[in-house]
Design a protein that fits this description.
The complex is a heterodimer of chains A (237) and B (435).
Chain A lengths: L18 E9 L2 H16 L5 E7 L3 E4 L12 H6 L3 E4 L6 E4 L3 E7 L9 H18 L5 E3 L2 E6 L2 E11 L2 E9 L19 E2 L2 H5 L5 H16 L2 E4 L6
Parallel strand pairs in A: 1-2, 1-12, 3-4, 9-11
Antiparallel strand pairs in A: 2-6, 3-5, 6-10, 7-8, 8-9, 9-10
Helix pairs in contact in A: 3-5
Chain B lengths: L1 E5 L9 E7 L6 E2 L4 E7 L2 E6 L4 E6 L6 E3 L3 E6 L31 H10 L7 H4 L5 H9 L18 H19 L11 H12 L11 H16 L2 E9 L1 H18 L6 H14 L5 E4 L2 E4 L5 E3 L1 E3 L2 E3 L2 E2 L7 H16 L13 E4 L19 E5 L3 E7 L2 E15 L5 H16 L7
Parallel strand pairs in B: 12-16, 16-17
Antiparallel strand pairs in B: 1-8, 2-4, 2-7, 3-6, 4-5, 6-8, 9-19, 10-11, 12-15, 13-14, 17-19, 18-19
Helix pairs in contact in B: 8-9, 8-10
The chains are: A alpha/beta (237), B alpha+beta (435).
Chain lengths: 237, 435
């Protein structure tokens, strides 16, 4: 929590393209997350806010991207609902995936026109952010050509799916920290049959504090995108 | 003139793209920069805006087809210009329209409806309006003497919803009120002023973007204009030395955060000072009903919080019964829930006085509009070090400008000055424990 009143003796921070406001949102409903992203995207397009990084967790939910194939959902929607998981069809790239408690979801809303107008570059940068975090835990994570995401061996540690409108990004990454990987049994994540999923917890043999990972992600994001990361909550008129 | 639409280059190493969805059909009009189609490449979906305004005359690449960058995927014709001969490779079975002058749009039903909806001011007989309105809408129109051909329908095929007609009536009324400053019944036919903006909009060729206000934006707009119409706004500004407050906060911020788990900000200082001053001058905490002044027992202080897309004013209830920590905790709770959009309706109602912070981007002070039905609002500027004269020497002190906007119907200048003077005194002689 930081209010502008607390910062007023120093120079106020101007809205510059080289800052990125970080919003740590805790656990947020998937639908509410969509709504927040829509607002941020509209504000970013209008130049009303700087680049933003929304960090949060979702309750159990399965999402189907634009290219999702129904057969990659291995049980019916009713069965998933019975397990307390929602199902959403959304406007990002990619196939079906799962979000839930213990998984760090990042929604960067950044204007690529002010970085590089290059979606491949953007995806590689997102991967670099999460590979950097993995390195901090001495985990050698890597890319797999043609399969966006961050991999450890044959298992996916972080999934990615992005939507772009006028070079402003939404959706983003899902990083398995302490995710209950059992929830992936009901789907073929991203439509890749011969690959598995993993988490920091599984790789390290212990649960990892989410706050700690969030801090590392913020740091790596700033490093990779050359942005000054500022916690975003100001009281202004 | 035909404009070619090509598969855009979405990055250096990106050589091709798959069209996942066309957002316009052949024959439909499209504005420059309006989303025209969507493409996807590895895990990325992108909306591609139209490079030109006109009629989408040909779609050359169907959905789910992948083509190299710079392949022509569609053709857009400027309205009124002759259309190029249909290319042999045109995939859509709809015949390319013949010469399409503005008056005769291509015979696609969707396009026809769009044009019909856009042709505001046309003198279509009322019966043709039946198709795009419900009996309820027609009844409202009759009650308010609205010509339905003047109303823009936002529903399917330009259908007029209840909200469309009510918005129209409201817009017409406020336009009328602005012109005459009198609450008169709207005349039986739409006043010219209400028609002009629509007409200007539909014929203008200047590059503009029309974005409808969000519900929150509309509410703010109505609320602000209504306040200016209701209250006799007068403003006064004081300069206040903040040394003791700054010192108290600096000295105890770490201990405060350790004990309470949240940061010590300046907000509770201002709330406390305002509450003390209100106790001395209760008319600040009143409202006006007709010719009565209603004094409120509780002091409920609203704190204006900016959101990305608007403004919300959560209320610290019964601030007069809380000590410093109680106020600080309430402010913290409201601010956090405002940011997370977890405020209840109750949290934003019942305010009797408001504090806002026009200084957060460096403004010296602001002259805020009174939050109705309240009668005063305190504006807190930026706290910053300034040279000031103390004992005939120039000293460096933390200073702030406090502004009060007040309703002269019930608050006279002397009362407003005493109120701000009292706040100044509390802040400059700060001695209340914060822990």
């Amino acid at each position: 929590m930081r209010e502008c009143y607390g910062e007023l003796e120093t120079q106020p921070t101007p809205v510059s393209s080289m800052t990125c406001q970080v919003e740590r949102l805790g656990v947020i409903d998937y639908a509410e997350g969509l709504c927040l992203q829509r607002e941020r995207v509209a504000a970013r397009k209008a130049g009303a806010i700087p680049d933003s990084l929304l960090l949060l967790e979702h309750p159990h939910v399965y999402t189907l991207g634009r290219n999702a194939k129904q057969e990659n959902l291995l049980v019916s929607r009713e069965q998933l609902a019975a397990r307390g998981a929602q199902v959403f069809e959304i406007d990002r790239g990619g196939d079906v995936t799962y979000h839930g408690p213990g998984q760090l979801v990042g929604y960067p809303v950044i204007n690529l026109a002010q970085h590089r107008r290059d979606i491949a570059w953007y995806m590689r940068c997102l991967e670099e952010v999460l590979m950097g975090v993995a390195r901090e835990y001495d985990i050698q994570a890597e890319r797999v050509a043609g399969a966006s995401g961050v991999w450890v061996g044959n298992d996916k540690l972080a999934a990615m799916g992005v939507h772009i409108s006028r070079w402003v990004t939404s959706h983003g990454f899902a990083f398995n920290v302490n995710t209950d990987l059992g929830y992936f049994d009901w789907i073929i994540p991203c439509g890749l049959r011969d690959k598995g999923v993993t988490s920091l917890q599984k790789l390290l043999g212990r649960p990892i504090a989410m706050d700690e990972v969030v801090t590392k992600v913020v740091h790596q994001f700033g490093r990779v995108f050359k942005l000054e990361m500022v916690e975003a909550d100001s009281w202004v008129h | 003139m035909p404009n070619n639409v090509v598969m855009p280059q979405m990055g250096e190493s990106v050589t091709e793209g798959t069209i996942t969805k066309w957002l316009r059909k052949v024959g439909e009009p499209v504005g420059r920069d309006e989303p025209l189609f969507e493409i996807s490449t590895d895990k990325v979906d992108a909306e591609i805006p139209s490079p030109a305004a006109g009629i989408l005359s040909q779609i050359l690449v169907k959905e789910d087809q992948t083509v190299p960058v710079n392949t022509v995927v569609a053709v857009i014709d400027d309205q009124g210009a002759a259309v190029a001969a249909p290319a042999g490779g045109a995939e859509e079975k709809t015949p390319a329209p013949q010469a399409a002058p503005t008056a005769a749009p291509p015979p696609s039903p969707a396009a026809a409806t769009n044009v019909a909806a856009a042709a505001e001011g046309s003198s279509a007989p009322a019966t043709s309006e039946d198709a795009r309105s419900s009996p309820l809408v027609r009844r409202i129109a009759e009650e308010h003497h609205v010509d339905l051909t003047q109303v823009h329908g936002t529903g399917l095929g330009g259908r007029i919803s209840k909200k469309d007609i009510l918005d129209y009536v409201e817009q017409r009324q406020s336009a009328a009120a602005n012109r005459t400053a009198l609450a008169v019944q709207p005349p039986p036919s739409p006043p010219p002023a209400a028609v002009e903006p629509a007409a200007a909009h539909s014929t203008s060729t200047a590059p503009t973007q029309v974005v409808s206000m969000t519900p929150m934006r509309r509410q703010i707009a109505e609320h602000m204009v209504a306040s200016k119409r209701t209250s006799a706004h007068v403003y006064t500004v004081f300069e206040v030395e903040m040394s003791k407050v700054v010192e108290a906060r600096e000295r105890q911020r770490d201990e405060f955060e350790r004990r309470n788990g949240f940061k010590l900000t300046y907000t509770p200082f201002f709330v406390r000072a305002a509450v003390e001053a209100i106790k001395q001058l209760p008319v600040i905490n009143s409202s006006v009903e007709g010719t009565n002044i209603i004094y409120k027992r509780d002091v409920n202080v609203g704190i204006a919080v900016a959101l990305e897309t608007g403004l919300i004013v959560p209320v610290v209830k019964r601030a007069d019964e809380k000590n410093f920590l109680g106020v600080a905790r309430a402010v913290q709770d409201l601010a956090e829930r405002a940011r997370n959009k977890r405020l209840n309706v109750d949290d934003v109602q019942g305010g009797t006085f408001t504090i806002t912070n026009p200084g957060s981007f460096g403004g010296l002070f602001g002259l805020p509009i009174i939050n109705q039905p309240q009668v005063a609002i305190l504006g807190v500027g930026a706290i910053e070090k300034r040279p000031v004269v103390r004992n005939d020497a120039i000293a460096i002190r933390s200073m702030v400008y406090l502004s009060l906007s007040y309703d002269h119907r019930v608050i006279d200048g002397a009362v407003a000055e005493r109120f701000l003077g009292r706040i100044k005194q509390t802040l400059e002689d700060w001695d209340e424990p914060v822990l």
